[in-house]
Design goal:
Strand content: 15-25%
Helix content: 40-55%
Mean pLDDT: 76
Shape: flat
Strand order of the largest sheet: 1-2-3-5-4
Length: 228
């Protein structure tokens, strides 16, 4: 592909301008012909406008990834395995360890087998997302050698994320006394609900579904601050 053409395609301002023009033209047509359209026609036009806006959001997401992907993939595996790993838990999608990377605690999620490209989607999606209530991405790679102490094999796919020490399930349990079930204070219920909805709204704005939302998978950090 010619360099100039490639640069034009991956210039978000150009793509954004093209989509904005399409949206503006559709709105003009809708305004001019609104009285002549039946209700179903108006809904169709509104849906097209909505889809154009969604396309713009997705294009920006992809182009941000195109510009930053090389920097994000630099993982020093020798540094990652130089400190002991601590088992956190496992589930339907893999096993999770606490480890150290560049001196900071991280969570390492291991998928031992990746049989198709869809298995890599979690890491690819997480790499592109930036939101206060979405767990932060730190890297992803395939293990370069066996780790017998943890029963992990070379070639296992790993996603590295920020380490968040608690989850909503254990947090609620910690608030219960032996004689009385108190649970979360009402004001904290509203705060937690708002944070969860904020994270989910951000995901849904890119047509991304969480698929495994439950208290064990809602992470609770300091303040307290939630990540989905």
């Amino acid at each position: 592909m010619p360099a100039g053409l490639s640069e034009s395609i991956f210039d978000f301002e150009i793509v954004e301008g093209m989509i904005d023009k399409c949206v503006a033209k559709l709105k003009n047509i809708l305004d001019r012909w609104r009285n002549n359209f039946v209700e179903q026609d108006i809904k169709e036009f509104q849906n097209i406008i909505h889809y154009q806006i969604k396309i713009k959001e997705r294009v920006k997401l992809v182009l941000d990834h195109h510009q930053n992907s090389q920097e994000l993939e630099r993982i020093d595996q020798e540094d990652l395995i130089s400190s002991p790993w601590h088992f956190i838990g496992n589930g339907a999608f893999g096993v999770v360890f606490k480890a150290k990377m560049k001196g900071a605690s991280v969570a390492v999620k291991i998928l031992e087998t990746v049989q198709n490209q869809s298995k890599l989607n979690e890491g690819r999606i997480l790499r592109l997302l930036k939101h206060d209530n979405i767990v932060a991405y730190r890297g992803m790679d395939f293990l370069k050698k066996d780790l017998p102490d943890y029963n992990l094999r070379q070639g296992s796919f790993m996603i590295i994320m920020e380490y968040v020490p608690d989850n909503l399930s254990t947090h609620v349990e910690s608030l219960k006394s032996p004689y009385e079930v108190t649970g979360l204070p009402k004001n904290q219920v509203w705060d937690f609900g708002e944070q969860i909805m904020s994270g989910l709204y951000y995901l849904h704005s890119f047509s991304i579904a969480h698929r495994d939302l439950k208290p064990d998978n809602i992470l609770v950090g300091g303040q307290p601050f939630l990540n989905v």
